[in-house]
Amino acid sequence: MTAIAHFQSSIAAAGHLIAMYDELRRSRHLGQRGRLDAANADLLSLPRAAVVASLSALDAYVHAVLEERIPIALRTLPIPDALCELMASTVPIKNGGSFRDALPLLAAQDSLAELCARAREKTLVFVSYQAPEKIEGAYELIGYPNIFGAVSALWQGPGTEADDIKRNLANYVKRRNQIAHEGDHEANGQPRPMRPIYAEGCRDFVIGLATRLNRVVYGV
After folding, report:
1. Which residues neighbour 183 within 8 Å (Cβ) at sequence distance 6 or greater?
2. Of the candidates 16, 90, 156, 191, which lies 20 to 30 Å from 50 by C-alpha distance?
3. Domain count, the chain
4. What is the pLDDT of residues 63-102, one digit of tens each?
């Protein structure tokens, strides 16, 4: 499965959660719009979950792109500086012990493939590619040092300059973290307001971003 096909499968979860919210409103005879009372506030867990699912789909997409493109970048000169730094930290040979640790990789029939696997297992798998600076760092590895500028060039309309895109993404990531790590509660224990349209906007923004990231790297 390609990176973008995997993304499309993952992002569908956000749409399902939003649809479930709408269906449950109907089943409780609450109408399509309007503020929920305390007895029905539990329904807002669904749009909150949709925000988390949207950013998780983006994270998974960038991981998939790196898995596909790092082996290509390692075989294409010049190799990006950021990728060279990553690989140097993956197999540091400073003494006899570290040489012994690196020997299976050096002796492998396809040492570059083994190097990619080791970088993924030791470093990349632990990185979350959601925040703008993390995504910038990811695309520097595969030779795209100004990824948000490239995305902006493909994104028409107001609020689509590179800084706008990064700011919007950072705001969605902040809310995602508040939901995932704080239960989306204020310091006083009160839940933060949540409107389902916010979750829809997050999903649509992430779809727009991933689609254009894909066009930059793959041309489609």
Report:
1. 191
2. 156
3. 1
4. 999 999 999 998 888 999 999 899 888 876 676 665 567 6
